[in-house]
Specification:
The structure holds two protein chains of two kinds. By secondary structure, chain A is α/β, with parallel strands linked by helices. Chain A contains 19 helices and 23 strands. In chain A, the strands form six sheets. A seven-stranded mixed sheet of chain A has the order 3-2-4-5-7-6-12. In chain A, strands 15-14-16-17-19-18 form a six-stranded parallel sheet, with helices on both faces. In chain A, strand 18, helix 18 and strand 19 form a beta-alpha-beta unit. In chain A, helix 15 packs parallel to helix 16. The longest helix of chain A is centred in the middle third of the chain and has 21 residues. Chain B has a six-stranded mixed sheet with strand order 2-3-1-4-5-6, sandwiched between helices. The two termini of chain B are 32 Å apart. The chains are: A alpha/beta, B alpha/beta. Chains A and B meet through strand 8 and helix 10 of A and helix 1, strand 2, helix 2 and helix 3 of B. Strand 8 of chain A pairs antiparallel with strand 2 of chain B, so a sheet runs across the interface.
Chain lengths: 579, 195
């Protein structure tokens, strides 16, 4: 019997890439896609890397595919936006070795800034899409994607959602099949996308999609399951599981290839059932096409475009079942927070004290927007902090943003923040950028990047110096400060926001969760000195709470002795002691 | 291996991001796979892991479709913290068992004074559900390693699930780091015998 293993959806995608003979994989971390690369690195047959952003990662995979090997790029849904420039055009060029882009959507916004549907991007880019509905399919469809890519000379998208990426299921393992490299021969008409060549390729792309749509009617991953014909459902991905759970007797057309759609197969299926439903999370991508062919179907009239679905949701919406469900207890919310000992908390505590507003960015430090820190006013997308601050300055002038800064992490700065900083210098901006350097990509679970000195495959490499990059742009005032030295930081921030021109403050202290970060101190509470003023509690460290008598007490299992609270206590009630 | 039940069993593990609920789900996944069941697990990664409320679903049976447990369906709800037990108690089915680690971790809403940590949570829960509770962290400290508190919780839950004790011991031995096998087996024993 072949080996079976419980695998995370992302782990199964990595396994699929391995079995498909993939040789190159590139990615930028992003929930819920990160574990794909973290599992690919376990296969020494595959070269894999963290690229600085998704555009670069996609271009790395494109280059590898053009040279004749199977290559993959993976990213979260908003990463697809960053990668969309190369994606739209390589769709014209097509491939040599198989090329697959994995896009991980996040319905329900577990860890994202929007709820966009990557199938819409794929349709616009004319890139075919496979959508798995469990871990086994995540592996199988990844392999199929490479076959289809090479058969139809097209990049393929494998689209997952959080509930596929972060669910585990049983997967049957198969051996890796080494695929011979495709020979390379110069072919500018295919790979040099300038107007004359691209016109011809556009014709090809249209033809390719038509052919695939026709062939999709007999593609085994587009599967008709005829049962009772009163209800028929067209579905794909994780909603298929909810349909099976809630409507076990219904007939189902389960689509594995969700773009382009198999029109004849859908028309046939529709003709055999009394009432046809389309069940898909997020946008009505399948539904609108089905309806445009004059087929009567019910979808977003009764189902939302927001969040995740569930079997209970379908029981209510389609079967009108009254479910006997208890009301949840009214309990205090438990939103995510910065960890005890997080250097970002220290930096935000200074900004909060100075009444500074920040144009923020994407990372754990987005939590600086909420109580009790309340520093960040705006968050849009990766790298946007610096450019939005610049926009404000150009709109309203230097004095308007005297109490503003841009705040961005090291990994996000390397991703796209660097372009925005170049723009500030070039267009003679005034403003202060704070780069919170915690030596890692924190929120996605600690991935290296170009400024950490280590690659995904574990190689030690020279770390690119953020300080010297800023200096090389011609920024005169670039100051490095220890993130926990709140006195110096306060002084430096006051100086820099009052200066004209562009300045950069790099606050340095490694993420407290990094394995290399050692606990060197502990906190000692002298309750007799505590005046119950609450100054120490203001930065919102979860390791500190008030005791019954109103004095402060520390949870020793959570505290890592960072000393931020001790520095804020004017009465010496909290003491940071070396271990 | 033969599958004993056709009906899908629903287990939920809830807690606070960073408490290490992942080991528990790995052990549950391992034991169900060893017993020949189809199994699906679903967990939370990313931002919510930073001290937020986290949920893991485990479903096993002869053929499992959706990977999540919904309200009113859980056979066993394992809560690593009291407030989280209260937050998710309505996921229990009638007659389901609630395993509670009697620990309090204040959410930021309580730390900042915006909300009160509910008093007498265990009494509230006992009035409605079958509750098994213990301070697993204190029990773990007695064993000399506070980190094995989650294996104690697994032991507490195991006493209310379908698998033989030997199967649990086997999967724990397979799953935990080799150096910690002895203390984890001892921790399981402590939990298993808590009534």
């Amino acid at each position: 019997m072949s080996e079976q293993k419980i695998m995370l959806g992302n782990e199964a995608i990595a396994r699929g890439a391995y079995e498909a003979g993939v040789k190159v994989s590139a990615a930028y971390p992003g929930t819920p896609s990160t574990e794909i690369s973290e599992n690919i690195v376990k296969y020494p047959e595959i070269y894999c890397e963290w690229s600085p952003n998704e555009k670069v990662a996609t271009e790395v995979a494109i280059g590898a595919a053009i040279s004749g090997v199977r290559a993959m790029a993976s990213m979260k849904h908003v990463g697809v936006n960053v990668a969309s420039d190369p994606l739209y055009t390589i769709s014209y060029g097509g491939i040599n070795g198989g090329l697959v882009l994995v896009a991980a959507d996040d319905p329900g916004l577990y860890s994202s800034q929007n709820e966009q549907d990557s199938r819409m991007v794929a349709r616009a880019a004319m890139v075919p899409v496979l959508e798995p509905s469990d871990s086994q399919e995540a592996k199988d469809f990844t392999k199929l994607a490479f076959e289809l890519s090479e058969k139809y000379d097209t990049p393929m998208m494998v689209r997952t959602t959080t509930r596929i990426a972060h669910s585990q299921g049983i997967v049957t393992l198969e051996p890796r099949v080494e695929v011979e490299d495709k020979p390379y021969s110069r072919n500018p008409a295919k790979f040099v996308m300038m107007p004359g060549n691209a016109k011809g390729r556009h014709v090809y792309v249209e033809q390719r999609l038509k052919q695939m749509a026709e062939d999709a009617c007999t593609l085994p991953v587009n599967r008709v399951e005829m049962r009772d014909t009163k209800i028929g459902v067209i579905t794909s991905g994780i909603p298929y599981q909810y349909v099976r759970e809630a409507l076990p007797d219904a007939s189902v057309l389960k689509l594995g290839l969700v773009h382009p759609l198999p029109r004849k197969l859908i028309e046939e299926f529709a003709s055999k059932v009394d009432t046809l439903y389309v069940v898909e999370e997020l946008e009505p991508v399948i539904e609108e096409q089905v309806k445009s062919w004059g087929i009567k179907a019910i979808g977003k009239e009764i189902l939302t475009v927001q969040g995740e679905y569930s079997a209970n949701m379908l029981r209510k919406a389609i079967l009108h079942q009254e479910l006997d469900i208890e009301e949840p207890a009214a309990v205090p919310a438990r939103p995510p927070i910065l960890c005890p000992g997080c250097p970002h908390r220290s930096v935000f505590s200074v900004m909060n004290k100075l009444g500074i507003h920040a144009a923020g960015d994407i990372g754990c430090y987005t939590l600086g927007a909420v109580a009790p820190l309340n520093v960040i006013d705006t968050t849009v997308c990766m790298g946007a902090s610096i450019s939005t601050l610049h926009g404000m300055e150009k709109a309203k002038g230097r004095d308007y943003i005297r109490n503003w800064v841009a705040m961005i992490g090291d990994s996000t700065f390397m991703h796209t923040g660097i372009n925005s900083l170049m723009n500030m210098v070039y267009n003679q901006s005034n403003g202060t950028v704070i780069i919170m350097d915690n030596s890692t990509t924190g929120m996605t679970g600690h991935q290296d990047h170009a400024a950490t000195g280590k690659t995904l495959m574990g190689q030690e490499v020279p770390a690119i110096s953020i300080y010297h990059m800023c200096k090389a742009m011609g920024i005169e005032h670039v100051v490095e400060v220890d993130a926990f030295d709140i006195q110096t930081l306060e002084k430096v921030v006051k100086e820099e926001v009052n200066r004209d021109g562009v300045s950069v403050i790099i606050t340095k202290s490694p993420c407290v969760l990094l394995k290399t970060t050692k606990t060197t101190h502990k906190l000692v509470v002298h309750s007799d000195k505590c005046k119950k003023c609450g100054l120490c509690l203001k930065p919102g460290c979860p390791a500190l709470t008030k005791a019954e008598d109103g004095t402060v007490k520390v949870d020793a299992t959570m505290c890592n002795g960072c000393g931020l609270c001790a520095k804020r206590c004017p009465f010496g009630a909290l003491e940071q002691v070396a271990l | 291996m033969a599958v004993q039940t056709k009906e899908t069993k629903n287990i939920m593990i809830v807690g606070v991001g960073g408490q290490g609920t992942l080991l528990t789900s790995r052990i549950l996944g391992g034991i169900t796979l060893d017993a020949g069941y189809d199994v699906k697990l679903s967990e939370v990664h990313g931002m919510a892991q930073r001290g937020g409320s986290v949920v893991t679903y485990v479903r096993y049976g002869s053929n499992v479709a959706e990977p999540i447990v919904e309200e009113g369906q859980a056979d066993v709800l394992i809560a690593f913290e009291r407030l989280e037990a209260l937050r998710y108690a309505h996921f229990l089915k009638k007659g389901g068992v609630l395993i509670v680690n009697d620990q309090r971790i204040d959410p930021i809403t309580v730390v900042t004074g915006a909300a009160q940590y509910p008093a007498d949570i265990l009494d509230t829960l006992r009035a409605k559900y079958k509750v098994i509770s213990a301070d697993a962290s204190a029990e773990a400290l007695k064993l000399g390693n506070s980190r094995v508190f989650n294996t104690i919780i697994i032991g507490m839950a195991a006493a209310h699930m379908d698998f033989e004790k030997e199967a649990w011991l086997k999967v724990i031995e397979k799953t935990v780091p080799p150096k910690t096998v002895a203390i984890n087996l001892a921790a399981f024993e402590v939990g298993y015998n808590l009534k």
